[in-house]
Design a protein that fits this description.
This protein is an alpha/beta fold and about 450 residues long. About 30% of the residues lie in helices and about 20% in strands. Mean pLDDT is about 90; it is low at about 1-5, about 15-20 and about 435-448. It binds zinc ion. Zinc ion binds near residues 26, 29, 31, 72 and 74. Zinc ion binds near residues 26 and 69.
Length: about 450
């Protein structure tokens, strides 16, 4: 009866399958992946902020859907976009968040002490951004090399005295560096593993880049926290992979790196910092934190399909609650502005369909974004001073992971009794409070 694309069409008609769930090879183990974790619909690239001139032009939207491999349990996006489309002019400058700058300084102090780094050492950071981290090693006279594929941020790093190579890191580049005798005592890869298109080449490259006694530390958002905290807005096209500790351990082990320690960090809604060394090295021994975290993840069922399936439904319910709150606030005549224009904000805004019908504008500290518009939803972005000028009733905090810092900064919002709204893990309204802007006062529509 049906021919050509018939099997797919037949399945669609019978409601058994969607063309998006026919399977794609796993980024790590190459097994076919077809289990959907969370489908966020069609979305533009979350860092593609638009100029006024681009508002009337066609905009590219891509599917945004996270799947999980039932062989290695890597949560991942299918390959929708080429890395070149994403990373040539990356708008994110690490230095614009106070807490992030402090995090970088604390890490530097800790790791110099723990590994005994000095003037004869070499620290290489992969995806070194604008040099926000390596500058602290430079100040301590520890030699560094940054590797950063985005030209505009690499230039900013050079300007602050951080030598930086503009190239995609992988096995090939690591072999070149090793051949020049430039192996590292410490390799740092913070918040980049998720964005690596060729995961195996990247981790194999780390192995090649490490001196025999070298250590690698890698920070990435923890999948367990993402799921427990309902942080679906941290899923975006730039993040190809989402790691549990057990999956990360499996990936590094395959490339000859043993994870001997792991720390849990509050950054990005809950991250891990893993410590790796050559599997052939005798020390340091594998610490007890490794076993403890593996056991916790196993108890959460992260190596079974059930929690992944439940997550998708929870995400849709979160959207309904946020929209219910916004609709109610607008019906009551309230004005609402955003704070921040982070990548995660754009996932949230697009998935929920929030445009200037709900949000008059948003503000951001990054001057790159001023005068531009959020991708897909076309919300104008202003400097933070705009808030005091227009005195909105509600301020929707898009970078919810920085909510305490932001509410502490916006003390003048108390003058006009603004309320803060945090959308994740579920919509919560704070203030106004006479003594502190940070005391939760759940009220109205989506309070629970
Ligand atoms: Zn896999």
């Amino acid at each position: 009866m049906l021919s050509g694309g018939a099997p797919v069409l037949q399945q669609l008609l019978e409601g058994e399958a969607r063309p998006s769930s026919l399977g794609h090879p796993c980024r790590f183990c190459a097994a076919p992946v077809s289990t959907v974790v969370c489908d966020l619909g069609m979305s533009p690239l979350c860092e593609s902020f638009l100029t006024v001139g681009q508002l009337n032009q066609v905009e590219s939207f891509y599917p945004l859907r996270a799947d999980v491999c039932e062989q290695c349990w890597l949560v991942q996006l299918e390959r929708y976009v080429t890395p070149e489309e994403i990373f040539t002019e990356y708008a994110y400058f690490s230095s614009y968040s106070d807490s992030w700058v402090r995090h970088a300084r604390d890490y530097t102090e800790m790791v110099i002490e723990r590994l005994g780094l000095g003037g004869d050492s070499l620290v290489v950071e992969l995806a070194s951004n604008d040099g926000y981290l390596l500058q602290h090693f430079v100040a301590r006279r520890v030699p560094v090399l940054g590797i950063e594929p985005a030209l505009n941020v690499a230039t900013a790093a050079e300007e602050r005295g951080v030598p930086t190579m503009t190239r995609f890191f992988g096995e090939e580049m690591a072999s070149d560096l090793a051949a020049e005798g430039r192996q590292a005592d410490l390799v740092i890869a913070n918040n980049v593993l998720a964005q690596v298109p060729d995961l195996n080449s990247f981790v194999a490259g780390i192995k090649l880049l490490l001196k025999p006694g070298g250590v690698v530390t890698v920070e990435f958002p923890h999948l367990l926290r993402l799921m427990e905290g309902n942080q679906f807005d941290t899923i975006y096209h730039e993040h190809f992979s989402y790691f549990s500790f057990s999956t990360a351990r499996r990936i590094f082990a395959r490339h000859g790196i043993t994870l001997f320690d792991v720390e849990e960090l509050p950054t990005h809604g809950g991250s891990l910092r893993i410590y790796g060394r050559h599997a052939t090295a005798e020390e340091p021994p594998v610490g007890e934190r490794v076993e403890r975290l593996l056991a916790r993840e196993a108890a959460a069922g992260l190596e079974t399909p059930a929690p992944y399936r439940a997550f998708g439904e929870q995400v849709i319910e979160t959207k309904r609650k946020l929209l219910a709150f916004l609709i109610r606030a607008k019906r009551e005549g309230a004005s609402i502005a955003g704070y921040g224009a982070p990548g995660k904000g754009n996932t949230l805004l697009n998935f929920c369909g929030i445009r200037t019908d709900f949000l008059d504008y948003t503000v951001d500290r990054n001057p790159y974004k001023h005068g531009r518009f959020t991708p897909g939803t076309h919300i104008p972005i202003y400097p933070p001073s705009r808030l005091a000028e227009t005195r909105p009733d509600y301020i929707l905090i898009l970078p919810w992971n920085l909510k305490d810092e932001i509410m502490a900064q916006l003390t003048d919002a108390l003058d006009w009794e603004a309320r803060f709204v945090v959308p994740i893990p579920e919509v919560t309204v704070y203030g106004p409070a006479p003594t502190s802007g940070a005391s939760p006062a759940r009220q109205g529509g989506g309070g629970r």
